[in-house]
Amino acid sequence: MLKESITRRNFIKGSASLTALLGLGAASSQAPKGLVPKAAAKTNGKVQQFYNACPRNCYDTCSILTTVEDGRITFITGNENNTYTKGRLCVKGNTYPRVVYSPDRIKYPMRQKGRGSGNWERISWGEAYTIISKKILEIKKEYGSTLPICLNKYSGNFNILNYATEGMMSSIGYTTRAQGTPCDPAGSDAQGFDMGVAYNSDPEHFLDADYIILWGANPAWTSAHSMYFIEQAKERGTKLVVIDPLITQTASKADEYIQIKASTDGALALGMIRYIFDHQLFDKNWVAENSIGFSEFFAYVNKNITVEWAAEKTGVPQAVIERLAREYATAKPANIWIGFGMQRHVNGGAMVRAIDALAAITGNIGKRGGGVNYIGGETWGFNYHTMSFGAPEGSGGEADRMVNMNNFGAQVLAADEPPIKMMWIACRNPIAQDPEPNVVKKAFDQMDLVVTADLYMTQTVEYSDIVLPVTTPFESVGINVSYWHYWMNVNEQAIKPLYEAKSDLEIAMGLSKKLNELAPGSCTFPTSGNPKEWVEKELNDEIKELFNIESWEDLRKKGGTAKANEKITVAWEDLKFRTPSGKYEFYSKKAVEYGHHPLPVFTEEYKAPKEYPIRCMSPHWKFGIHSQFQHQDWLMAIQDHPYLEINPELARKKGIQNNDIVKIINETGYMTLPAKLTKMVPPDTVVMYEGWWKGVNYTENITVKALAEDMGEYQKGQRGIAFHDNFVNIEKA
Amino acid sequence: MHDMPLVIFTVLSQLAIGGFVTLWWIDQKSTIQRKTGLLISLSLVVIGGIAVLVSLFHLGHPFAAYRAILNIKVSWLSREVTFYGAFVGLSMLYSWFWIKDAASWRGMTGAVATILGILAIFSSAKIYMIPAIPAWNSMTTMFMFFLTSILLGPLFVGVFLIIRGELSMNLTAVVIVGFIAATVVMLVYFSGLQGGLPQAAESLRLAVGQLIFWVRLFTFIIAFAILAITAIGKQKQTGTIYTVVFVLILISEFLARLQFYETAVHL
Amino acid sequence: MAKKLGFLVNIERCIGCHACEISCKSFYQLEPEMRRRRVTELPEDLVGTPVRAFVSTACNHCDEPACKNACPVGAYTKREDGIVVHNQELCIGCQMCGKACPYKVPVYNPVKRKMDKCSMCYERLDVGQLPICVEKCPLEAIQIVDYNEVQPENGVSIVPTFADPSITHPTTQFILPKPGKQTRRSS
């Protein structure tokens, strides 16, 4: 193992580095007189190791190796059998022992007398199930259906078995669902129109790229394992370009950083395309063989776009756009990674379509090391057995009713015939994460019962009636795949559930049991079952073949992790696009169907209102995934409060100094937090990182309006939310 | 407030050593009644003992404090503990010789204890003269520690002797010299901080920003003034004046030491 | 010749993620407030163009360790290979080492009421494993080097925020980042 590490490390040049590291274990290095204790005396108890999977809605979705001594977790690290995880975790993953043994965990079911009062009393699981079941049955009786019951669940735990919560809801009848995603919808629609679906290449293939553009992506904070491959590529001579309105941690590592006016990325891509057309740098054969609508697009660009215009629009000098276009068009293969943040604008989908077009005209799509990489779902072909039981006989209504997750508060309030009276929240923290949190609270106020299943006392739990304690990944069974890399990871139960915690699957079975006790036949969800049997039912022949495994048990025995067959790891290698035409569609009739222009055209950005001229962006924070992890005391010991990044020039205008308390305000709300003066943000923008809820009475979304993105309905059912088109004013508080 | 045990220890131990040396010196040069000498000697043993006990509160493991002498070869803290421990032991023996009224034995043990006491203060100061904390890393630390001893010790003994009508030496002169020296050292110290590394300047900024800095200066000046005016005016040095000056200077030195620790800025 | 092991920290590779620090905390099951390894933000004008830069430091296993001379119980030893080891068995929790270290490396363990510091994972090294921070850095930005054998061509002994190395002669060296090209919007 040591040797391997030596060969991997190459930043000391020259052969001397080997001698430097060899012979580390020499006995002569022991200190004299036995003053130094010998190798740490570990416990004499039983030491076991388990494979786990990080399920926290992350690109990297790591395979984990957990060490358990005498039934207690003593160390959690990456699984070396996974060539993407590489035996290492990100900073958040390294806090997992604390996540499990945190003093802040919710230990048993509790009922709150008065939402938000903090007046909690412990109840038994039996009592909790009874209260909830009676409410469900009461609603069903009163309204003739279960549609007044609303589920809001999303990405806090992407273990496939956690779809049991959705299954449980389907098993009681037709309900109301928070639909859509705040994550990727506009970009996914864009790639859907262009190529049929969003499909990215294996991030380990960054090593094969000649040129990499990270377009509004910050993997140094959000995908540390990808950043490793990018840095390795850089060391081999690959040029790394970062295009971003902010000097992110990733931008700080770039060979070239280009600061762009936020939400004008489409203009930059189109300007580059115009240059590439003008200089005949595009791949004529590729577009002729693999696309439709190219001539229309060509005509559109030549008629409407100039590089000068793009320079004006984006704030990027013409010479830089031209050089960038030439470099990108001539590098083979050239790789683009579009970050989710880039499309969180009112024109996000259109911008992604323009960037896709840039990759298409240069023939980079379908090439190993190339591509226009955004997100993918090729490895998600599970059975979703937990959702397969159907509504019980005599359920009122005809189908589930959808409300947009991205405008949850307002749509819940607006729902009528029947109104929404009960909410079940799992794997989510909507009061912290949704736009217009005050509207979300109003929606909560209208409920007869709010049930939240969570690990910690989040802002959402604080505003619920009943909280159900859930397990961490280490206390339950599961299986995980990623929307980015091509691995499947086993999740074993490493320790017994702490306190009275239960997994979402167990909760579903428990609730079904109680419902059927009170009203036989009222819930179709199984009332018992072994989690390992449940997880085996998720695998079908196709997915087993794809990962070359026989079963979950087999995957566990093979080292806890397996990579999908190479044939799918290069996106669109067969050039068989999943569009109606089977080709890459510069001209998309599907787009027209959804009310968009057929071509990847320029769409104007959202303009700042006069009284709120400053853009407030809320990118992901390095110590959190949405509202998870940041609140752990291990991380609070490093950074214990949120702050607002302000350019010194803007700060000077506003009379703000470092650490001054700043008020940020717009028509939606206001909050106050300390200033951090930094040139990492441009003077017209401030930045407040996402996901802080511990120790503050606000979230970064206090000023965020439920402003829709341009796309999302095609692939995700609902449009996304333009989180970064949040305009505010700031003043010294 | 984390270093409070050290504040109390250093001030009390320096007081005890200064008092002891004064007592021993006067005992050598003139006569002190056995009862008076025993009283002073025992009170110094008590103060010295309290200093030891208080210092233990600074340790994570007070009952393992005995191990602190193990690294005497290189550690000034080990040396301080060793010298000061020996000093307290000898000062007890010295008190025993007051009980026995054995003057020559007192002279000998007192001489050895004096040397140990001086070494203890020297070691104590050396502990803090470390580059890691620029505000401490100067000879002014050494001077300040000895001056605490010179200001407090003679006054403490003086109070007893005046009350018992046995003051035969001009302790006021010694203390006034101490005051003048302390004033000079203080000025050198502040200007040294101001002109020193950024961390030293920061220490000064922090100190001046606290109210206790000004209380410390005020008590120092008032104490100095009272002693000087009464000395120049040829007024009789009364027990009251000595007591007032002693209490004021004890407060002043205590606050100064508190700031010494609390405003220490690490590199 | 005896070895002189020290950390080589590649700031060019470091993304300031703190995984080194937290993996160390996890492996040694340290109390939440204890930090054996620390990641510190560097001035953003470090390389000329503004960037986010961080440096990760732990014990510098100095040639002339101030902790060793300050400790009254002799709990510190410098091994022949250069690693400065703190023997917690002997420690009485006086905290002088923490004061004397120019890098504030030894920290107090409030539960054990003793001092604690990085040992370069010598127990792991002695059985042929790498220190946890070295092994777990997602960017492979930390390495240990025998400086008696190797002088990294671009290694430097000081970075901003790092105390004057002439005091205790720390063995840690750093590789500074190279500035990239930047096109920033003019305001």
Structural features:
heterotrimer; A: 733 residues; alpha/beta; Rossmann fold; Dimethylsulfoxide Reductase, domain 2; Barwin-like endoglucanases; 3 domains; eight-stranded mixed β-sheet; six-stranded mixed barrel; 17% strand; disordered N terminus; C: 187 residues; alpha+beta; Alpha-Beta Plaits; four-stranded mixed β-sheet; two-stranded antiparallel ribbon
Describe the structure.
The complex is a heterotrimer of chains A (733), B (267) and C (187). Chain A contains 26 helices and 27 strands. Chain A has 733 residues and is α/β, with parallel strands linked by helices. Chain B folds into two domains: 1-128, no CATH class; 132-267. Helix content of chain B is 77%, strand content 0%. Chain B is built from nine helices and no strands. Chain B has helices spanning 4-29, 34-56, 76-99, 103-128, 139-163, 171-195, 198-208, 211-232, 239-262. Chain B is globular and about 55 Å long. Chain C has 187 residues and is of the alpha+beta class. Chain C has helices spanning 19-27, 66-70, 96-100, 122-125, 132-136; strands at residues 5-10, 38-41, 54-57, 76-78, 84-86, 107-109, 114-116, 142-146, 155-156, 173-175, 181-183. Chain C has a single domain, classed as 2-Layer Sandwich (Alpha-Beta Plaits), CATH 3.30.70. Chain C is globular and about 60 Å long. Chains A and C meet through α1, α2, β3, α3 and α8 of A and β1, α1, α4, α5 and β8 of C. β10 of chain A pairs parallel with β11 of chain C.
